Write a sequence for this structure.
């Protein structure tokens, strides 16, 4: 009989020797929370592409498949409890991944697939356009999808300009097959935001995390989570975010007959925000001209000081509530 | 100014998607203890080669060099505090690594190089014979070398049949340039072992860990550490061991003007032994025919249940003394 807590995650993402993004950002948090992680690296780069240069190689779809086949030949794909995917810029690899998910779900119908549909940000697409409909198709197999606002727009094929739009877009992603949707960063007009979670802000727009969950009775429960922002340059926070969704959703499943996506997301936001804050403080201490970090920095030295303070964030990963209480708040949007 | 605890390790080892050996065994312990680890993977295999089959690819020496060059181009090799190397079966890669160590030491003269000279075990060499003299040469740049008994014999060019032999062999490795030597598993006749650390044993031979350290006055301090053994099949314990040497030696350096290799090794043995015990208990629970695990198992299913219980060993990594006290003992061999 399987132990209550024998969790095995297959995480398919990129790898950088130095710094934190892709699997380098996703694996440590999961391991810290007790999850065994099988690490399938789709690329091997010296560092992330925010640096002036990088070296290394990308795997072909056949090489990725070959590694999966090697696992399968040894029965190592029989009992995955979770699969996590992040940035996969290659259409052929993403097609293979779709088949892997299908296969893993047939071996373990309870397998949870957390899919971070990394395609772009702030209006700019950084994958081939044909990746978009493929992800839309993959949503049929997804348990949690974690797009940013732009990616949610691409998947739902609508512009999100208000909280109402976000609710509608999330419903569309539910219709495509994903029972749980987390729009990780949502920028909406302040008038849309319930008073009790409004943050002090100099602008008339605010940044939030939005969750939408289909309940067993078919109804949809939606929450908005507010969190403070920091004027820093971040890489890998999205990968950290989706990895923690795996762990916190599992906790919620263990705790309740009807797991709460918003509770899970709240705990994720607490950890990610605490690490983001530490990263911002580190940048303030290390970088002389703080103006430099408000946009993508050019010099390798600055970029390096901007790397996520992930390893020093172990406590923040282990104890999210401690760091979040009083600063990060959630409120229900949908009618109870 | 660099923070007191900004440690950055470059770890050059193999990578397996599933299971624990090479970097998969070395990185998590270091990260858990607060070390940033740059992970340079020399191979990408689906699983370790103790399974019936495996897939994946090995990097060429040029590909490894290219990744290092990519780091260097971004100034990311300027401030490594540690370098850790494990199994490198390829002569050309090991030559490149020698040059990398030389370069990193010129950039940071305080850089600590922990070298696990993985070449074979129990009389069997599993690398090309020309690797042996290359490692002997590399000892000039090494701060700690962690051979097993067979590897210590290869490096010192002498047979180790007694504790006295071990002392002599270690002195030879000091002469080759390594100020700190840890023979990770030493099998010596019971008559050699001081009474206060003798373990109950049905045989007339016992397994120990042996440390030898050159002190600032030129004298050599040598210790023997006793630990219980378990009749299980282990993979990756050596990689776990050498990674913890990095962390525990650094602690010892921080704590004292003359760091104690034996104190560091004692704490390493405590953690490794606790995780080995948990792995043995897991094997007992999961494998029906315990006879199967006393030798290298054939079936993938059994091999998989033999994987190191590393992730569940977080507490044992964080708090080594708690688990070791009373069971694991060390005694001084050299005259004070």
């Amino acid at each position: 009989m399987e132990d209550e807590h024998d969790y095995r995650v297959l995480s398919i993402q990129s790898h950088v020797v130095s710094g934190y993004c892709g699997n380098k950002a996703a694996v440590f948090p999961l391991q810290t929370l007790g999850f065994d992680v099988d690490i399938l690296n789709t690329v091997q780069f010296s560092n992330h592409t925010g640096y002036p240069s990088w070296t290394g190689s990308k795997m072909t779809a056949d090489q990725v498949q070959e590694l999966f086949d090697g696992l399968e030949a040894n029965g190592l794909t029989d009992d995955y409890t979770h699969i996590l995917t992040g940035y996969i810029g290659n259409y052929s690899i993403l097609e293979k991944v779709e088949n892997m998910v299908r296969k893993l779900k047939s071996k373990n119908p309870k397998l949870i697939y957390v899919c971070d549909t990394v395609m772009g940000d702030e209006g700019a697409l950084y994958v081939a356009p044909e990746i978009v409909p493929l992800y839309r198709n993959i949503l049929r197999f997804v348990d949690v999808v974690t797009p940013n606002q732009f990616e949610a727009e691409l998947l739902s094929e609508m512009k999100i300009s208000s909280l109402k739009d976000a609710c509608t877009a999330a419903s569309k992603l539910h219709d495509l097959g994903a029972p749980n949707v987390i729009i990780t960063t949502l920028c909406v007009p302040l008038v849309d935001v319930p008073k009790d979670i409004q943050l002090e802000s100099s602008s008339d727009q605010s940044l939030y995390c939005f969750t939408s969950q289909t309940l067993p009775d078919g109804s949809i429960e939606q929450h908005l989570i507010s969190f403070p922002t920091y004027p820093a340059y971040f890489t890998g926070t999205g990968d950290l975010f989706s990895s923690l969704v795996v762990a916190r959703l599992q906790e919620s499943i263990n705790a309740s007959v009807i797991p709460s996506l918003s509770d899970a997301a709240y705990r994720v936001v607490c950890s990610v925000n605490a690490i983001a804050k530490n990263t911002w403080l580190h940048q303030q201490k290390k970088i002389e001209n703080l103006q430099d970090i408000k946009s993508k920095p050019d010099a390798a030295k600055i970029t390096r000081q901007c790397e996520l303070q992930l390893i020093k964030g172990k406590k923040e990963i282990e104890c999210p509530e401690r760091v979040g209480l009083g600063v990060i708040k959630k409120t229900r949007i949908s009618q109870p």
Residues 88 and 94 of chain A are 6 Å apart (CA to CA).
